[in-house]
Amino acid sequence: MRHLSVHRVRTGVVGALITALLGAAGLSAPAAALSPDDPTAPAGNEADAQVGAQTGTRTGTQTDAQVGEALALTPPMGFNNWNSTHCRADFNESMIKGIADIFVERGLKEAGYTYVNLDDCWALPQRNAKGRLVPDPVRFPNGIKAVADYVHSKELKFGIYTSAGTKTCNRAGFPGALGHEYSDAQQFADWGVDYLKYDNCNNQGVDARLRYTTMRDALLATSRPIVFSICEWGQNRPWEWAKGVGQLWRTTGDISDNWGSMLSIMKRNLALAPYAGPGHWNDPDMLEVGNGGMTDTEYRTHFSMWSIMAAPLLIGSDLRKVPESAFEILGNREVIAVDQDPLGRQGAVIGSEGGRWVVARELADGSRAVALFNESGRPQRIATTAQAVGLPAAAAYKVRDLWRHTSANTAGTIAATVPAHGTVLLRISQDRGWALLPPAVEVGADDSVMAESGRTAKLTATVTDLGRTPALAVSAKVTGPQGWTVKAVGRTAAPVLTSGAKLTTEWEVTVPADASAGTHELTVAAAYHSPTGKRLTASVPASVSVVVAPPAGRSYLSDLSWLSAVNGWGPVEKDTSNGESRAGDGRPITIGGQVFAKGLGVHASSTVEYYAGGRCTGVSASAGVDDEKGSRGTVAFEIWADGVKAASTGVLTNAMSAQPVSADVTGAKVVRLVVTDGGDGIDSDHADWADLTISC
Question: Residues of the signal sequence (predicted)?
Fold first, then answer.
């Protein structure tokens, strides 16, 4: 960041430019724009220049710019109410004080959670006669300063929200800060604000850099250290220019409490690793843990991936109402330590083939945090090596599982069978005491086993010694759901497994005649002893997909059950468009004005798999971008048969009518329907498999 005085001498020009841009938009800058709250202060550009003259250079040991640079040296941690309350009445003084109390009582403060932040709707829709913001007296009867004082009394910090526009994002039209930057910043400082989330609504087309830099200067002018969170949704690529303007910047639109939303945001943020570091963080939005829209497995993935991405950890759930599992996830200090590592490196993608993600992050002590993330809808083995994630060659390494809180030694292979939508988060290091640790043992099974009801399927399970030391008295066992029969075929034990050795076991799994179609979970477990005699156990999930062969003739695939479905935004919808993030919120499938009664509504990136059982010959559809997003959306459709691409459309846009696509799938057991983003990134890529049929 350049010295503050350089920015200050420009503030008169900034004020004039904002006034001109507001005028061009048909608006007038308020008399108090860019001026202090003092009603006798000059208005407009004259006041702006005076503020600059008064605060341009500080004497003493520290400039305002240096204060800004010292903020958020690790990603901010805390709370924001928006994800759980939006503008509902339960967002009020009582809630905010209650969250501060819970931070202390449940150990979250001690774990590192610091900020208790308000979001939109805290103010009245109109400023007072002096142009100042007025807190809603119903929500905050004692005012904002009283709430900030309460938060500070708990030795926590307090945050607030406004927008870099004339109004905030809520439809009620609460006042934004555009044209009021200096007076609002001073009002926030007077209240004791420590953190400002600065949104992007109603911005009147004013240049983003100008709007956010002006508020940066206004915050610095208060001489109060205030973390500046830039929330312009990644529209203007803030990662390229916002270092030195704010301490964090949103990289995406708002998150929703569902798997598709979290996954899409995670993927976009992962690509921005080079731009993050101490005092300047990529922000993929707040946490949804505890809000109820995802499973605990998915919430652990959410928390793990945000931590390995060095993302801010702002709790978005009402902690007065969440289940105990949410506290267990949010309070995992070993995972938090990854997020808060002082080196400040965001994790980089090592690989992602087949939805098997490996993301690694260098830590300050030289170790590596490694996330093995399974994007798919069934358990998968994910593997890498210590050297692939950046560690130097060594005889062995210590591997620490940050969710199981166990340690082992590995000869270099890092591998695990990861549940559907799950993440195994590890910390790998060189450790002279590795020989005292038990060997890491990998338990695994076939990635994909399919069987029809009443039939028997074969499953192969393995136990592998990944350690440098031997595993002794090794045994394996597979169990299925109640009513299922699981029988071993051959040996299930070995007296010793040396480094790299594997015990392979075969099992017959008989599916009950009344088993429902879908994925059913089995458990593969291993027991073994370390060289020191300690008995250990390990288990992983395996899955059997109970399938129903399509009927003879031509059928709509939307009338059949799929094997798995992964969608880039919200769930896959049957016989409607994708809609938004919630199930069932789609509209009639419409491509180029043509309405279709049947089909699948998806959003790139999307993969939907169906069982064909080797009995079908062809799949056909009319493919295109749904009209529900106007002129946006660019996608490509693909049909795969048993892992071989059988047909593709090329890139389709919203300007095109529905395009025919068909494929020969003769003999294929599994048909996979894929929609990609067309190579230009994901932006409203709502895609329709209209009139989608299979012939058998």
Answer: 1-31
Q: Which of 101, 136, 254, 642 is catalytic?
A: 254
Chain centre distance of CA 195: 22
Q: How confident is the model at residue 539 (pLDDT cuts 50, 70, 90)?
A: very high
pLDDT in tens, 473-528: 999 999 999 999 999 999 999 999 999 999 999 999 999 999 988 889 999 999 99
Three-point CA angle 25, 26, 28, nearest 5°: 100
40 CA to centre of own chain: 48
Q: Is 254 a catalytic residue?
A: yes
Q: Put residue 205 in one of left, alpha, beta given phi > 0 → left and psi -120 to 50 → alpha.
A: left
For residue 9, pLDDT over 50 is answered with no
When comparing pLDDT for 39 and 662, which is higher?
Answer: 662
Bridge partners, residue 641, by sequence? 644, 671
Q: How many CA atoms lie within 13 A of 106 on its CB side?
A: 21
Q: How far apart are CA 28 and CA 427, in angstroms?
A: 56
For residue 68, the model assigns a pLDDT of: 55
Omega of the bond leading into 577 within 30 degrees of 0 (cis): no
C-alpha to C-alpha distance for 34 and 694, rounded to whole angstroms: 64
- Alpha-carbon span 232 to 169, nearest angstrom: 12
pLDDT in tens, 24-48: 444 434 333 333 333 333 333 323 3
**Residues 531-537: contacts with CB under 8 Å, at least 24 apart:** 531/438, 531/469, 531/470, 531/472, 532/436, 532/438, 534/438, 536/438, 536/441
Is position 199 annotated as part of the catalytic site? Answer: yes
- Residue 647 to residue 589: CA distance in whole angstroms: 22
d(C-alpha 460, C-alpha 480), whole Å: 14
- Pull the structure tokens for residue 27: 């608006």
User: Is residue 65's pLDDT more than 90?
Assistant: no
Number of residues in the chain: 696
Between vectors from CA 489 to CA 488 and to CA 495, what angle results, nearest 5°?
A: 80
Helix H segments across 232-292? Answer: 259-270
Residues 6 or more apart whose Cβ sits within 8 Å of residue 538: 441, 443, 525, 526
Residue 51: pLDDT band with limits 50, 70, 90:
very low
- Determine phi and psi for 559, rounding to 5 degrees: -90, -5
Q: Give the angle 178-179-182 at the CA atoms, nearest 5°.
A: 100
**Which tokens sit at 75?**
């990603």
The phi-psi region of residue 186 (left if phi > 0; otherwise alpha if psi is between -120 and 50; otherwise beta) is alpha
Angle of CA points 674, 556, 687, to nearest 5°: 35
Which residue among 199, 318, 341, 685 is the active-site one? 199
- What contacts 400, CB < 8 A, 6 or more positions away? 334, 406, 407, 426, 427, 428, 429
Angle (deg, nearest 10), helices 181-191 and 208-221: 40
Query: Closest Cα to residue 133, out of 37, 18, 22?
Result: 37
Q: Positive or negative, the Cα torsion across 680, 686, 690, 695?
A: positive
Mean pLDDT of 210-236: 98
Tokens representing residue 516 in the block: 């429902």
Decide if 214 contacts 97 (C-beta within 8 A). no
How high is the pLDDT of residue 568? Answer: 83
List Cα–Cα distances, 517 to 25, 292, 686, in angstroms: 58, 25, 28
Q: Which residues lie across from 283 on neighbouring strands?
A: 250
Sign of CA dihedral 603, 607, 612, 618: positive
Which helix H or strand E contains 48, and what residues bound it?
helix 44-55
Tokens encoding 577: 């468009």
Question: Any bridge partners for residue 481, and if so which?
Answer: none
Q: What are phi and psi of 415, to 5 degrees?
A: -155, 150
